[in-house]
Amino acid sequence: MGIHEKNRNPALDEETLSTLPIFDGKIITLQVDTVRLPDGNTATREVVKHPGAVAVLALNKGKMLVVEQYRQPMHRTEVEIPAGKLDPGENPLEAAGRELQEETGYHSGDLQLLKSFYTSPGFADEIIHLYVTENAQAGDMALDEDEFLEVSELTLEEAYQYIADGRIADAKTMMAVYAWHLHTLTGQWH
Q: Which molecular function term from Gene Ontology is one that the record holds (predicted)?
């Protein structure tokens, strides 16, 4: 069963009774849902709605492309794989190619979907589609006007050291490193 297919246990379903919009921003919206619980009582759920995103594990000659940029919520820089949000109606595969090129200058004609996953299902509907390419080719960057970042390449050993040091601390990049490591052991992208 795929991530987008309904996977429900009717005994645990919550029925949405009402939705109160709270905030409508550039990237997210926030709403408060009133739900009926399985036992008949009601509760509220704060829900962040997000258009979805893509991320790319891009390998160039055995090294992973990463970007370092300032992340305001953490008040520090983070080292991450290239990633970005989906535009309305955008195909995730096309978005992955776009983000790879915009953020790193690299491009690839052989991106393949590795896995799609929810980032924080307890309060948000954001889904990230993680792609992989072993054939990233250098080109020209095309950063958004409000993006400032540095591109570098890491070996698998360096990536693990960045995780140990806390320089890589986001789930999508850690997942990409673990998938890359598994690939080196099995020869398969799982």
A: hydrolase activity
**Positions marked active-site:** 145
Q: Is the pLDDT of residue 97 over 60?
A: yes
Residue 5 domain-assigned?
no
Among all chains, which residue has been given the structure tokens 């408060």?
A: 32
- pLDDT tens column, 124-170: 999 999 999 999 999 887 777 887 999 999 999 999 999 999 999 99
Q: Could you give the C-alpha distances from 72 to 15, 27, 64, 69, in angstroms and in order? A: 35, 14, 24, 10
Looking only at the bridges linking them, the beta strands covering 15-24 and 29-36 are: antiparallel
Higher-confidence residue of 6 and 81: namely: 81
Report the side by side order of strands in the sheet with 42-49: 15-24, 29-36, 42-49
CATH number of the domain at 156, please.
Answer: 3.90.79.10
Which of 107, 105, 96 is CA-nearest to residue 149?
Answer: 105
Q: Which amino acid is at 173?
A: T
Number of domains in the chain: 2
C-alpha span between 31 and 35 (Å, rounded): 12
**What is the pTM (predicted TM-score) of this model?**
0.91
